[in-house]
Amino acid sequence: MGVLGALIVFVTLNSQRQGADLGVKLKEVEDQSASMAEYFKDKLREGGDDLTRYRTSRDESAWADFLKASGDLNAWMQREVSSPLTPRERTLLEQMNASYSAYVQLAAAVHQKIQAFPATTSLPVDVMDKVGLARRQLFDLGQNLSQAHLDLRKQLLVEAHQMLVRLRLTVLGALALLYLAGLALAAFVYRDMIAPLRSKLVETQAMAEQREKLAALGLLAAGVAHEIRNPLTAIKAALFTQQKKFAAGSPEHADVKVVEREILRLERIVSDFLQFARPAEPQMTVIAADLLLLETKVFFEPQLEKNRIQLMLEPSTPLYVSVDPAQMKQVLINLVKNAADSIGQDGVITLRARHSRKPLPHGEKNTVILEVADTGKGIPAEAQKRLFDPFFTTKENGTGLGLSIAARIVQKHGGVLQYQTQVNRGTTFGILLPQAST
């Protein structure tokens, strides 16, 4: 029994180590996906927007912006090629480097053509077609690089599953022998060692699968947003030119203003999609928790007074957190707005910060909980099951991304977004964050 017990302990500790290694690898793949593929596509889109703006306006500052974005992207590719990469990633980066050089040469040709042609003359169509084709090819290479990261993630998930199967087989065999030696000992080992590990591995696998789904969904959202933003830029440039032809106060000028407002609304929707696809890395700073709540109160109080909603801030002992203040205020603003929508009119929203010791993704820690409590309608049971799902909303004009983005921001801070609700009694959202020392 002693040998079998030692075998179980060894398998358990070895599996924990392998699980931790796989978790690190998954985190590295996610970080690379954000810092490589998405950075390339962002810079490519930024340069493309500058080139489109230069072609429509012939503004030399737009050309200078294009050259700066091109230089940044070229320097980034040179750095990444020399970093540790898989063979497939290295091949794709080398293809992207060569294709981007050709793309910049075509853009330089456009610049020369524009300087050579009078301002009233349109450029030859074949020149811009070549530039557009080169940019689409580069974007496809960026998509392929993202897919390479997804394939690597799938491979790591397969390894995690195989490790779980091996662990189950080993443990079941050992437990069968231990059962013959003594039911009491078998029950003790399973209860105190195997069951928690199995639960943790299953939870880790479920979280990894959820991350894969979110990554694939985010990749799709980024691609759609990219394809929408390019024509929007061209439409805005053309609209700016046409607007000058109509006198202020004319029906035509009013129609142009309507189109301009709708374009801005589309850009805001695209920005929400992009923020969901690749949330920015937080810039951490230690700040007082009640200061975050106070700034949120000052921002919202005048708006809520119109609907007779009282926004209260409960006093608390000094508590500090390490956060990106802008991102965390974005989460609080989203929660307060949802609370106000739930109340409608005549109610109370309470902001508070309190200390607790709670389990977080990296273990149990001293935490600061930022709470937003309302006296609204509460959340129905059928909506609670999908509350944090992307694109799920109960609002007529909502995008369904507010809580999804908020949850991902809190997760980036090493925290958890949780809630408690009672129908017709109200809802309390809590942002659990590690407590920081001053």
Give a written overview of the molecule.
The strands form 2 sheets. Strands 2-4-5-7-6 form a 5-stranded mixed beta sheet. Strands 1-3 form a two-stranded antiparallel sheet. It has helices at residues 2-57, 60-81, 87-116, 125-181, 183-243, 251-277, 289-305, 325-343, 381-384, 402-412; strands at residues 285-288, 309-313, 320-323, 347-360, 363-374, 416-422, 426-434. Strand 4 (347-360) and strand 5 (363-374) form a beta hairpin. 69% of the residues lie in helices and 13% in strands. The protein has 10 helices and 7 strands.
What's the SSE blueprint?
Layout (H helix, E strand, L loop, with lengths): L1 H56 L2 H22 L5 H30 L8 H57 L1 H61 L7 H27 L7 E4 H17 L3 E5 L6 E4 L1 H19 L3 E14 L2 E12 L6 H4 L17 H11 L3 E7 L3 E9 L4
Parallel strand pairs: 2-4
Antiparallel strand pairs: 1-3, 4-5, 5-7, 6-7
Helix pairs in contact: 1-2, 1-4, 1-5, 2-3, 3-4, 4-5, 5-6, 7-8, 8-10
Q: Which features does this protein show?
A:
flat, two-stranded antiparallel ribbon, Heat Shock Protein 90
Overview in brief:
The chain is an alpha+beta fold. It contains ten helices and seven strands. It has two domains: 276 residues, no CATH class; 150 residues, Heat Shock Protein 90 (2-Layer Sandwich).
Largest sheet: 5 strands, mixed
- Compute the number of helices: 10
Percent helix = 55-70%
> Which regions are unreliable across 5 or more consecutive residues at pLDDT < 50?
none
* N-to-C SSE string, H for helix and E for strand: HHHHHHEHEEHEEHHEE
Indicate the mean pLDDT. Answer: 79
